[in-house]
Amino acid sequence: MPVVDGITFLQRGVFVSDTATLVIADLHVGRDEASSVTLPLGERADLVDRLGGLLAETEPETVVFAGDVLHRFDGVTQQARGTVGALVDTCRDADARTVFVRGNHDTVLGELRDDVEPAYVVADAPRTVVCHGHEIPETRADRYVVGHDHPAITVEGQRHPCFLELSDAYRGADVLMLPAFSRLAPGVTVNDARDGDFQSPLVDGLADARPVVYDGEDGATLRFPPLSKFRRLL
Prior knowledge:
Blueprint lengths: L2 E2 L2 E4 L2 E4 L4 E4 L18 H16 L3 E5 L11 H16 L3 E5 L14 E2 L1 E6 L2 E5 L11 E4 L4 E5 L2 E4 L1 E8 L2 E5 L10 E2 L20 E6 L4 E4 L3 H7 L1
Parallel strand pairs: 4-5, 5-6, 6-7, 9-10, 10-14, 11-15
Antiparallel strand pairs: 1-2, 2-3, 3-4, 8-9, 11-12, 13-14, 13-16, 16-17
Helix pairs in contact: 1-2
């Protein structure tokens, strides 16, 4: 697992080595209930199994859910409640504490958790702050780790969830955008994306954004040129 600036890229998540913290975003629990599309093994089994795999791989002390834990705005169903509980239990069984960061979909997450925060400081050097990315953060940072827009990239006809690295993107701070942990969230394909296609106020332009893809088959991190150059190679 290559480590870049204290960050290890994983399958739809990152590990901050200095503080042994696993960060995932955009689980959108309840998406399968709100859609005619379901995963073959069911949403809960899929999320819990993949989270369990990351926990076994990294053995974190802390797991940060970086917003949009829930999908529905209007309430928490029993199924969604059970799924969130199963995710927390999976972390507890791995001796990892949980931190919940509020996303724009998490209007009713407070019905499940009384510890939901707008942001979480995950490391001090560089000062790394996890927030969802849907609004301007109040906490200053050298680097923001966000979700919200669900970036993906198409390579040779195959669509892959991807990370986006943006240097000096917001008030001099770097921004690292995570792909959605949910496999039901389509998101934005970055190949032909323009600045207005991303909703996060932390992303002011995409020309210098560098896509990063984690290849789960061989554990390799594939780093692409900035989008301004990458598009000319297509």
